[in-house]
Specification:
CATH class: Alpha Beta
CATH topology: Rossmann fold
Shape: globular
Low-confidence stretches: none
Helix content: 25-40%
Number of helices: 8
Structural class: alpha/beta
C-alpha cells in the first residue's frame, strides 16, 4: 500500500523488562541506562527531520513517553491510545521463556514474539490489534513521527508495506534506530560506528 503519508517510526528504548525478557504488553517498566542511550541515538538521527516540523504521535505507555521526551528533544507531541503495545492478556508480566515452556500447546521456544502475543489467553488478538493500527494509519494526513512499541511497529510497518501476517512476524524489531516508511517501502536510519 502506498496510500499512507511518510512515517518515521521509533521503537522505545530498552526497558528493565526487555533486559529480563519479561512480557510487557501494556504493563510498565522503566528504561534502562542502555534504553536511555537508545533514545539519545534516535534524537541524533531524528533531529534533521524535526526541523521540518512534522506532527509527532506517541503511545500512552510510559516507556514510549520517556523515549519521546528524549528523542524528540522536548518537542510537543500528541499521545494516541491506538499506539499502545498489544495486550498480552494472562502472559503480561511473565518471563517469555517460562511462558514458552509452560504452554507447549500454544507456543514453543521458536515462536516469534508477535505470534506469542497474539495467542496469549485473554489477550487482544490480531484482528483487534490490526484494526486499531489501521485506524491510526487511516487518520494520518501528513508525514509524521511515531514513537511506540516493537510489535506495534512490526504490524504498522507490515501494513504500510502491504505484507501478509506471515511476513510481518519476521520483521526486525530494533531499538536506537529510525524506520522510515515511504511509498510502501522501508529504510532504516542508524548511527554509523
Amino acid at each position: 500500500m502506498t496510500g499512507y503519508p511518510k512515517i518515521w517510526f521509533l521503537r522505545h528504548g530498552e526497558t528493565e523488562w526487555n533486559a529480563e525478557r519479561r512480557i510487557q504488553g501494556q504493563l510498565e517498566s522503566q528504561l534502562t541506562p542502555r534504553g536511555i542511550g537508545h533514545a539519545e541515538a534516535q534524537a541524533r538521527l531524528i533531529a534533521p527531520i524535526l526541523e521540518t516540523d512534522p506532527p509527532c504521535f506517541v503511545s500512552p505507555l510510559g516507556r514510549a513517553q520517556h523515549t519521546a521526551e528524549i528523542a524528540l528533544g522536548g518537542r510537543p507531541f500528541t499521545t494516541d491510545p491506538r499506539l499502545a503495545e498489544a495486550h498480552a492478556g494472562d502472559w503480561q508480566g511473565r518471563l517469555s521463556d517460562e511462558v514458552r515452556r509452560s504452554n507447549p500447546d500454544l507456543v514453543d521456544m521458536e515462536t516469534p514474539s508477535l505470534d506469542l502475543f497474539m495467542r496469549a489467553p485473554g489477550g487482544e488478538g490480531y484482528p483487534a490489534f490490526r484494526d486499531r493500527i489501521l485506524s491510526f494509519l487511516t487518520d494520518l494526513t501528513e508525514p509524521s513521527v511515531v514513537v511506540a512499541h516493537g510489535l506495534l511497529g512490526q504490524v504498522m510497518r507490515g501494513l504500510v508495506m502491504g505484507l501478509p501476517y506471515e511476513e510481518m512476524r519476521g520483521l526486525t524489531n530494533e531499538q536506537a534506530c529510525v524506520y522510515v516508511l515511504e511509498q510502501g517501502r522501508e529504510t532504516v536510519l542508524r548511527e554509523t560506528a
